[in-house]
Amino acid sequence: MVQLVVKIPGDSPSTCPEWALVELQGDLQSRQESSLHGKFIGDLHYTDKGVPVFIIGHHVLYGKVVDLDKPFGVLVKNDKKQVMNTSDVVAMDTSDVTMETNHDLQTDKIDYIVTAIITKKLLFKTRPKPIIANVPKKL
After folding, report:
1. Is the dihedral of CA 74, 64, 46, 53 positive or negative?
2. What is the pLDDT of residues 82-118, one digit of tens each?
3. How far, in Å, CA of 135 to CA of 137, rounded?
4. Whose CA is closest to 43, among 32, 56, 34, 24?
5. Cα–Cα distance between 116 and 7 in angstroms, integer?
6. How many Å apart are CA 21 and CA 130, to the nearest integer?
7. What's the CA gap between 6 and 73, in Å, rounded?
8. pTM of the full predicted structure?
9. Which helix (H) or strand (E) holds 53?
10. What gap in Å lies between CA 95 and CA 121, rounded to an integer?
11. Burial class for 56, CB neighbours closer than 10 Å (0-12, 13-18, 19+)
């Protein structure tokens, strides 16, 4: 089973964008036997009735839009290194003597930023149909 993520058109920029998961039954194989990561696979269109149509090479797939039981969140890990001067943080007062340390303390701050929400799945479970051009018959 192959799963891809695509952006759903019509999102407003003020809200978190909504993405859809594309699920294909079977395998996608490249002629070059290389990874398909980051490469163009095909064209995704919608009919007037909202039926997704996926064109891959000389094949066309017709699918349907399915709501997911539980939505997915697309998160991006944001590593930040903070340098704090401990003289601002640590000041100990012991028996009338104030001790201050002047060391730099490096802390790791990890944030996760929600970039999109996946609530729908485009399911293509039928076999692809070949695209055949109309060839005139010889008389």
Report:
1. positive
2. 555 544 444 444 444 444 445 555 566 677 778 888 9
3. 6
4. 56
5. 9
6. 24
7. 13
8. 0.62
9. strand 52-56
10. 67
11. middle
